[in-house]
Amino acid sequence: MTSYELWLFLHISAAMVWIGGATVAQIFGLLAQRSGDPAQSAAFGRSMGFIGPKIFAPASIAVLLTGVLLTEDGNWEWSETFIWLGIVLWAAVAFVAFAFLTRAMGRVGARLAAEGPSPELGAEVKKLVLLGRVLVLVLFVIVFVMVVKPGT
């Protein structure tokens, strides 16, 4: 096994954890929302407040680091469209997800547990779930860009 193959394996594995986990989180978020049970929505919010920084953030950092190693080891040019596009989209998703979304989900979960359901919290959960869906879509766009490699 070459070092390039190792970085590629780790890169793809980390991306699978991040994208697969985010997709499953969307499904659980939808189920919690549709249940109408504030306890289930609160538990989901608290879980995402934990899973985001403990699982998704390390996976996303591993994606970035192994991507850098692949670029260097594979003699790719940093000016390649797929590389800079991947980095820009990665940064956008990582910033929104980890600086805002996971924290907001944790806060909403805690408020639901403490205050119970309200139209305000219900609307906030819907907005956060929608934002999460957009981020998952962007992650799939990144995968598409990495596979197709436009500009090469």
Key attributes of the depicted protein:
88% helix; 152 residues; mainly alpha
Kindly summarize this structure in a few lines.
By secondary structure, this protein is mostly helical.
Description:
With 152 residues, the chain is mainly alpha-helical. It has one domain. It contains four helices and no strands. 26% of the residues are buried.
Oligomeric composition of the shown chains: single chain
The helix content, as a percent range, equals over 70%
User: How many DSSP-defined strands?
Assistant: 0
Strand content: under 5%
Question: How are the SSEs placed, and which strands pair?
Answer:
Blueprint: H1 3-35, H2 38-73, H3 81-115, H4 119-148
Helix pairs in contact: 1-2, 1-4, 2-3, 3-4
